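Extended Data, panel c. Modelled sequence:
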Amino acid sequence: MAVDYAKKRAVYLFARKLQVENASAKVAALKPEEMKRIVRGATILNIRREKEITYADVSVSIVDTELRRALDLPAATAGTLGDTVSASRSVLILPVYRTQERAYLWETENPLRELLRLEVLRQAHGAVLVPAGDFEDLRLIDHNNAAVVTGVELGSMFERYGAEEIIIATATPGAEGTIEPTSITLRRLTPKDVRVEVMKVPVVEVKETAATRLQMAAAAIASAVTQIATSTSYDERRALENASHLKVYFTYANPRELGKMQQSIRGAANVMALEIPNITLQNVSGTIYYSGERQTLKIDLAKQGIVVGERSDGWMLSLR
């Protein structure tokens, strides 16, 4: 049931993205055979249990052409490269809720986590992930070191999730009954550096409840990280438009292997970007944008333990 709902929800969100009028009714009217053609696959990324409720994070792959055909929309044009590459950055968001007494990250007492997860699903459409927090995550970061941990210290987390950036968002709500705004600090970590940004979420009226303030904070954080995840500068877009590009297919045994390959590719000397638009049950495909010679790129990836197999339409990549 959860996967079926995720599929329908993903199709609805994609239709909304295409600016389909009355998207909810039109998607609800799709026939089962149409849905089978539209949804290429669904992958359960994570399952967690919180009290009496089980949550599943599901990644759904949608066939754009089939959805357009079913909704009687014009076919996609060749478009600019920036339209597709802008959503290729993998961002991990870790929400911290701070009160006068203490801070919460993985604890069930953190009310920001579920609010942010829902906002991210609504706004980011898969470009941002809120991890549930497994044993490895808890070993690396908790509420005690969230304000000081570095990207280097979270190296294995970058690898396991295939993330380019980890953002630790700390929200400190203003006191109820006052006009004190909610303060939000975004610690943006990469394997090489740390950037800190600060936001203030103003109070609309003094009588706003703590729940309302927290909901507004979650929406503000989700909006910020979505922009970060989908941002590509004009100069970068121009550079990518002029770059060589290569279709690649990944073969892997588990998500860790996929994350390792993604990170190795993005870290290669001549790679300008790696676009991963869809993840399916069977495989992951994407596009590498690079400068220089293809053979040089192949040799560089081989040095990092990636086996490159030739295909008529690109490369098949796997680990040794």
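Confidence is low (pLDDT under 50) at residues 77-89. This feature is highlighted in the accompanying rendering.
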